[in-house]
């Protein structure tokens, strides 16, 4: 049997762990080529690399469904508050948008550092009353991890020589 304090700790940290997991999985996509349709050429989309600005930050947003509302009630609140007009902000790039069953929306955005306040206001004005919100500044750890693993293996090889 699991103690109450352990259950409380699991409840408290599970969303954070899930958010970090999604961030780790999807943050690599932030640097991947993005398919951009060319409005002048109706042929197949052209692949282009979206280069983030130097002052951009990665933000993981969790929109947790409020359990006392069904989907129709949540949609009514979002429409009444103009959520879809406010979020995501115009200068945000959606890296990934996932529904995690039992949790809600897990959205990874890349935004200019000077628009974090605008993103926060969009969530406060559009999402509150429909979702409980959590926001985490994050970064792409994959390249650092790969470098570490490579150096670690090189050091192991040096020791074995």
Task: Please write out the topology.
Layout lengths: L3 H24 L6 E3 L9 E3 L7 E10 L5 H11 L1 H4 L6 E8 L3 E9 L3 H11 L4 E8 L3 H19 L1
Antiparallel strand pairs: 1-2, 3-5, 3-6, 4-5
Output the CATH homologous superfamily. Answer: Lrp/AsnC effector binding domain/regulation of amino acid metabolism (RAM) domain
In total, the number of domains comes to: 1
Q: Describe the global form.
A: flat
Strand order of the largest sheet: 4-5-3-6
The CATH architecture comes to 2-Layer Sandwich
User: Averaging pLDDT over every residue, what do you get?
Assistant: 78
Largest sheet: 4 strands, antiparallel
Category from helices, strands and their pairing:
alpha+beta
CATH topology: Alpha-Beta Plaits
What's the quick description here?
The protein is an alpha+beta fold.
How would you describe this protein?
This protein is α+β, with helices and mostly antiparallel strands. About 18% of the residues have low confidence. A 4-stranded antiparallel sheet has the order 4-5-3-6, with helices on both faces. It has a two-stranded antiparallel ribbon with strand order 1-2. The chain contains 5 helices and 6 strands. The chain is 43% helix and 25% strand. The termini are far apart.
Keywords:
single chain; 161 residues; 5 helices; four-stranded antiparallel beta sheet; flat; Alpha-Beta Plaits; two-stranded antiparallel sheet; alpha+beta
